[in-house]
Design a protein that fits this description.
It is found in: Cell membrane. This protein is mainly alpha-helical. It is built from 9 helices and no strands. Helix 1 runs antiparallel to helix 2 and helix 2 runs parallel beside helix 5.
């Protein structure tokens, strides 16, 4: 049963109102363009078709969805203090929010598994973990998230056209909330923390072993040294990505657990935590641009239009 609800009148000046919308549009546009460049880079250049980069592509795709379907509506909702997009877009907004969140968390967990296997079992990894295997795993992740989130929202009556005017909320009962907390937060985040703890311990051992090598080692040992160093560097860079992700994720889930049972004036705290979670989608491409040489080279080729040349997909970007 809907209670009477009317959107509050705007309490800020027109100039502040315009600035808020310009800032919201800029953040959403940066998120969309940044992740689109990552998607184009990894998809176009064949040298980047590695298992780790395919997982980065999956993460960029979920971040792209966040930038297109989630951030504009959520930021507009916060600025207006009212849902103005209607019940259909509310259903789309809620579903894509759940889908993007689920895919992102599980993809970061897969990244942790990938780095753990690459450093712990390098021969098994190179023999068994191919781009095709990772593509199948990624597709399964997206399909599982789609079916899971659709079922979760459907059984809780979220696709019925009964949204109150000016409000966009989703209904999740207590049992479903616990299941969702386990599947989308506790289990994957616990896995991420445990595996990356192992990854950094292994990386430290490799670093110690490499420093112990003598200068007169054979050429083959030098190649192994370069390979180990490359794997450690990849683990460290992806570790930054995972750390930032968890930093943005934890406040969101902590407030989601606490705020519903707290006083109403803490609603804005949850809104800020939600914004930080969505901003992770904006931050990820910036991390790639700052720390990944292959992304920097890809951007140079794209912006200079060399990526449109014949056989440009075979260019060296590593």
């Amino acid at each position: 049963m809907c209670e009477d609800f009317s959107c509050p009148e705007r309490s800020v000046s027109l100039s502040v109102y315009v600035i808020l919308y310009v800032a919201a549009a800029a953040v959403a546009l940066l998120t969309v363009c940044g992740n689109l460049l990552v998607i184009i880079s990894v998809s176009h250049f064949k040298q980047l078709h590695t298992p780790a980069n395919i997982l980065i592509l999956s993460l960029a795709a979920s971040d792209f969805l966040t930038g297109v379907f989630v951030m504009p509506f959520h930021l507009s909702w916060l600025i207006e203090s009212c849902w103005i997009s209607g019940p259909v877009m509310c259903s789309v907004f809620n579903f894509v929010s759940f889908q993007a969140t689920s895919v992102s968390v599980h993809t970061v967990a897969l990244i942790a598994v990938d780095r753990f296997l690459a450093l712990s079992f390098p021969f098994l990894y190179s023999d068994k973990i191919s781009p095709t295997v990772i593509c199948i795993t990624t597709l399964f992740n997206w399909l599982f998230s789609f079916l899971y989130n659709f079922t979760l929202l459907y059984i809780n009556g979220n696709f019925v056209d009964s949204v109150c005017l000016g409000v966009c909320v989703y209904n999740i009962d207590g049992i479903s909330s616990i299941i969702d907390l386990l599947i989308v937060f506790l289990m994957p985040c616990t896995l991420i923390i445990i595996l990356y703890t192992h990854v950094f311990v292994i990386a430290k051992k490799h670093a110690t072993a490499i420093r112990a090598l003598q200068v007169h080692n054979s050429t083959e040992s030098s190649k192994n040294k370069i390979s180990d160093k490359s794997e450690r560097k990849a683990a460290m860079l992806l570790g930054i990505l995972v750390f930032v992700f968890l930093l943005c994720l934890l406040p969101y889930y902590i407030t989601s657990l606490v705020i519903p049972y707290s006083t109403a004036n803490l609603y804005h705290v949850r809104s800020v935590a939600t914004i930080f979670f969505f901003l992770n989608s904006t931050i990820n491409p910036i991390i790639y641009a700052l720390f990944y040489p292959w992304f920097q080279k890809s951007l140079k080729l794209i912006f200079t239009l060399k990526a449109f040349n014949k056989d440009s997909s075979l260019m060296n970007v590593m």
